[in-house]
Amino acid sequence: MPILPSAKKALRSSRAKAIVNNRIKSRVKNTQKQMVADPTQKNLESAYSAIDKAVKKHLFHANKAARLKSQIAKLASNKPAKVKKASAKPASTKKQSSSKKASTTKKAAKKAAK
Q1: Distances (CA, A) of 36 to 24, 41, 57, 74, 108
Q2: Side-chain half-sphere CA neighbours of 28 within 13 A
Q3: C-alpha to C-alpha distance for 74 and 80, rounded to whole angstroms
Q4: Are 59 and 24 in contact (CB under 8 A)?
Q5: Counting Cβ atoms within 10 Å, is residue 26 exposed (0-12), middle (13-18) or buried (19+)?
Q6: Do 50 and 31 contact (CB within 8 A), yes or no?
Q7: pLDDT tens readout for residues 22-44
Q8: Where along the chain do its domains lie?
Q9: Exposed, middle or buried: residue 21 (CB in 10 Å: 0-12, 13-18, 19+)?
Q10: Which of 26, 83, 84, 105 is a good FRET partner for 12, with 20 to 30 A between their CA atoms?
Q11: Which CATH code, of 1.10.1040.10, 3.40.50.300, 1.20.58.110, 3.40.50.1460, is assigned to 1-80?
């Protein structure tokens, strides 16, 4: 426990700020969960709003906010689409050198993962 009066005050203020910060972060998480459950335009706007407010309060870095927005935007755009598993096909029948073959198989694996 803090002994000095200024340290006691700092502890009080940091606890109060932590409560507010946790409230804002949980709102972001909840709006993301709503977006996953029901990807509508209204949920998208509320998620964007929550993320922007968190950035404004310096709870998230701007790049993290952009990443989160991108992820939920993908949910909104792919709403009716179902994920299909790609069949395993060889990349090509041509013979390639070993270095090209390794990079081609990596590219094919990435495409198949999408």
Answers
A1: 19, 12, 25, 10, 28
A2: 20
A3: 12
A4: yes
A5: exposed
A6: yes
A7: 999 999 999 999 999 988 899 99
A8: 1-80
A9: middle
A10: 26
A11: 1.20.58.110
Token look-up 């081609």 returns 104
CA-closest candidate to residue 58, choices 25, 104, 88:
25
Both structure tokens of 92? 């090509």
State the alpha helices, DSSP H only, in 38-97: 41-56, 62-77
Report yes or no: 53 and 13 within 8 Å, Cβ to Cβ: no
Angle, CA 24 vertex, CA 45 and CA 26 arms, to 5°: 85
Grouping H, G, I as helix, E, B as strand and the rest as coil, residue 10 is helix
